[in-house]
């Protein structure tokens, strides 16, 4: 080839390290090897040994966005383990994993241009993004922006789970796997609750040790969660219904599912969370009503009674005392009941004063600790969240925010209920129904706790909406084949013309 021709010809493909460096995974691998070598030469070989597997795991997550989403789903309940990892990292392990998963989604979208032709987002995703936008609007018009800034950032990052799950769990099988991850993480947390309660040894650290409070000498366990024991109990409650429905209606490993359901129920008894036990009782009655008149009804009753009897020996004495305190009225010695009355009274007053945009995300603890409400019953000096997810959303984001929040939850809940009813495969129907009952129980328990900004709330909503969406894609009728051209029988019997003969 002449020199002028060589100038306009395509350059030769690079080989070796140059080619690897131009590809995303190759560049990351070279950077990984270089970083490990630098740490080893700097006299820190142990750090180099630990950094290499961690970097390899990060590289694997960058190439597999669904793997990152699966880890996020697990850490939504097992956030105590994430807190342990965060102590060895410069930032939160959950935020780091979220950033890596987002980067993996961007890389996947760049590699596969067909993502641009994907179906439009579900109603749950759209409403979640609308609620996130309203959070920003409410924050901008708030008088407590300094107090609510960190809360807003955390809330928005939590809502981000909804579109991330929609972009990664694109098949019905993947959504079903994430539902099982929810159930398994609940069983792991329940096992840790039982272990900590029986041994008295704290295994998982917590972000706020004051949340793990002793009530009349009984220290309550939060299992594998970094949240307070009551919120942790709500998450175990949702997981328990996944296993209960799989044990009743499933066709695979029913004995194992029944054992995991019993594990979760025993842990709920030990956690002594009144709201979780109340939600369990109400949802259990709804489940019994559903099975009335069916052949399976005696089995359901027997399973419920056996699980309840199995949990009774593990029921702490303080649990009955906490329920008895409810009926003592204003003379109750349980100040948490008095505080809950004050929470809601203050919340109603804020809704009346700021009905449209509320007082701003994360502003309620500041208002609660104000001088104006110092004489309210059970009130503490420090700031506290309103222990009612729906009332707190109304107080902080106004009636518009409450309407959007309820729209997300009700849309997701009705979608998963319809999916469970329409599913013909028994195993899939049992899994969908377990998610529906678990989500419903969690929503009911949220009347007594500020669960609106927890990762678990938005994970359940995202799973419910995505399960309905992917199930609809699989059951869409295929286009009918084009009919074969019909030939007139008279033409078959007619003699060919002289010009048609070959």
From TrEMBL:
<feature type="domain" description="O-antigen ligase-related">
    <location>
        <begin position="260"/>
        <end position="406"/>
    </location>
</feature>
<dbReference type="InterPro" id="IPR051533">
    <property type="entry name" value="WaaL-like"/>
</dbReference>
<keyword id="KW-1133">Transmembrane helix</keyword>
<protein>
    <recommendedName>
        <fullName>O-antigen ligase-related domain-containing protein</fullName>
    </recommendedName>
</protein>
<keyword id="KW-0812">Transmembrane</keyword>
<dbReference type="Pfam" id="PF04932">
    <property type="entry name" value="Wzy_C"/>
</dbReference>
<dbReference type="GO" id="GO:0016020">
    <property type="term" value="C:membrane"/>
</dbReference>
<dbReference type="InterPro" id="IPR007016">
    <property type="entry name" value="O-antigen_ligase-rel_domated"/>
</dbReference>
<keyword id="KW-0472">Membrane</keyword>
């Amino acid at each position: 080839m002449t020199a002028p021709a060589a100038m306009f010809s395509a350059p030769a493909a690079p080989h070796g390290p140059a080619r690897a460096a131009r590809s995303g995974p190759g560049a990351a691998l070279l950077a990984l090897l270089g970083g490990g070598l630098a740490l080893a030469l700097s006299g820190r070989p142990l750090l180099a040994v630990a950094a290499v597997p961690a970097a390899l795991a990060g590289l694997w997550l960058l190439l597999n966005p669904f793997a990152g989403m699966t880890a996020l789903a697990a850490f939504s309940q097992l956030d105590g383990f994430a807190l342990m990892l965060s102590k060895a990292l410069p930032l939160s392990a959950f935020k780091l994993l979220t950033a890596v998963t987002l980067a993996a989604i961007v890389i996947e979208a760049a590699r596969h241009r067909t993502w641009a032709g994907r179906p439009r987002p579900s109603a749950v995703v759209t409403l979640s993004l609308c609620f996130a936008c309203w959070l920003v609007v409410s924050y901008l018009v708030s008088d407590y922006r300094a107090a609510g800034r960190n809360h807003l950032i955390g809330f928005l990052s939590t809502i981000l789970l909804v579109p991330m799950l929609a972009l990664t769990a694109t098949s019905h099988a993947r959504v079903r796997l994430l539902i099982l991850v929810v159930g398994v993480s609940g069983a792991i947390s329940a096992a840790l609750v039982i272990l900590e309660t029986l041994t008295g040894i704290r295994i998982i650290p917590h972000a706020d040790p004051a949340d793990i409070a002793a009530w009349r000498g009984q220290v309550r366990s939060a299992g594998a969660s970094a949240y307070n024991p009551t919120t942790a109990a709500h998450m175990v409650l949702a997981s328990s219904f996944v296993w209960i429905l799989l044990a009743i209606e499933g066709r695979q490993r029913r004995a194992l599912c029944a054992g995991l359901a019993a594990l979760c129920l025993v842990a709920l008894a030990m956690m002594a969370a009144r709201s979780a036990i109340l939600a369990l009782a109400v949802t259990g009655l709804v489940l019994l009503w559903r099975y009335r008149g069916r052949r399976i009804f005696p089995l359901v009753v027997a399973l419920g009674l056996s699980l309840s009897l199995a949990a009774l020996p593990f029921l702490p004495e303080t649990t009955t005392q906490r329920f008895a305190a409810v009926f003592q009225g204003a003379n109750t010695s349980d100040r948490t009941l008095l505080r809950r009355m004050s929470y809601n009274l203050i919340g109603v007053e804020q809704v009346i004063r700021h009905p449209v945009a509320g007082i701003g995300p994360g502003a309620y603890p500041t208002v609660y600790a104000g001088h104006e409400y110092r004489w309210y019953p059970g009130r503490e000096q420090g700031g506290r969240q309103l222990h009612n997810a729906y009332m707190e959303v109304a107080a902080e984001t106004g009636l518009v925010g409450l309407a959007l929040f309820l729209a997300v939850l009700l849309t997701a809940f009705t979608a998963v209920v319809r999916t469970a009813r329409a599913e013909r495969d028994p195993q899939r129907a049992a899994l969908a129904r377990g998610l529906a009952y678990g989500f419903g129980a969690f929503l009911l328990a949220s009347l007594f706790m500020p669960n609106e900004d927890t990762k678990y709330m938005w994970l359940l909503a995202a799973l419910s909406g995505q399960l309905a969406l992917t199930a609809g894609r699989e059951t869409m009728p295929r286009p009918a084949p084009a009919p074969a051209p019909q030939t007139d029988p008279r033409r078959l019997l007619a003699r060919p013309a002289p010009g048609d003969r070959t």
